[in-house]
Amino acid sequence: MSRILLVSNSHHDRPTEYLTSWFDKIVAIAENQSDIKIIELKKEQSNKKELVDMIEKENPQLVIFNGHGGYDSIGGFNREILIKCDDNEHVLSGKIVHALACRCAKVLGKKCITLGTHCFIGYKEDFQLWTESKDSKEEHLADKTASLFLDPAYEVIIAIIEGQKTGEAFARSQNMYRQKLLESIANGQQETVLASIFHNMQHQVCLGDQTACF
Q: Are 66 and 7 contacting, i.e. CB atoms less than 8 angstroms apart?
């Protein structure tokens, strides 16, 4: 039986374009796992109807959101609300969720866990991202400033795809945040960048079942 990964890549502004480019690394790793089926909702496909329909049709075990968010919601293309508290959060029941979207773990994430989501990994406050404001996918992936933020954020997904438990994957991500922070200090990185790396590390959370596996 295939493991099914569903990802929403909103890809409509500079930050979400970076997230989509970086997520291609995840796709390459997942494609090397013969039992993983990848379903991507990209740009205009990242809307509420298509997301819910695809979850109900395919029943993915792992659902990933790359976009903007709020304390009680996750957004898709042009910030259309995909998942919102007291609306449709129940569709994530029985799943592992990773949301690279600001703030949504604080309220929405907790609510999802109470309604049966196995594990919700995300951020309680804004996900801060510094980049060199490049345009192409190749430039995004070569952006050393962006890598300080996106490498640790996506490390947790890589670990989950490789078969680690969610708690172990979260610890691996946290360790990479510490590594990037120490490397940045040694390299004389500006204090505002250091503060943002620490902010993301501090506000990343892993809610629910720490032993859940994809």
A: yes
